[in-house]
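W.,

You were right to be curious about this one. When I first looked at the sequence I had no strong expectations either way, so I just let the prediction run and decided to look at it fresh. Below is the sequence, 157 residues in total, followed by the output.
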Amino acid sequence: MVRVVGDNVKVDVYPVSQAIKIAEDQGLDLVEISPNADPPVCKVIDYSKFKYEQKKKQKEIKAKAQKTVIKEIRFGPNTDEHDFNFKLNHAIKFLNDGAKVKAYVHFYGRTIVFKERGEILLLKFAQALEDYAKVEALPKMEGKRMFLFLAPKVQKK
């Protein structure tokens, strides 16, 4: 037994064989819409049109989904004030555009001994961006790089 719905169909519960016959009489297909309902719900429609509309809906949902952009900003452990401010302005622009920012200090050669200097630099960077972003991950060492992830704050309108 299935509940049959659709255009030009009396909504009611029918045996499966009769439901299929109703669909065939109209030159359409019987499509199961809600299998978990009691009784299951079937709709009398053109199956190819149904599949096309489903695909169209999926495409629409995908188009509306936001794509996350991650912008990288690289520092050295000995980055001076001017370069820091220059990169800070870039980060502010990226965050205002809605992108996430991945700031990192790259330790090359013997500069690896200045780990704390790199961490201080990243924390200073996060503090300077406090109004524009929230910290997703605190500074963490991976190989020769120390990372900091920032996500844009939701703008209040």
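Here's what jumped out at me. Helices lie at 16-25, 47-64, 81-96, 115-128. And, maybe more interesting for your project: The first strand starts at residue 2 and ends at 6.

Coffee later to discuss?

I.
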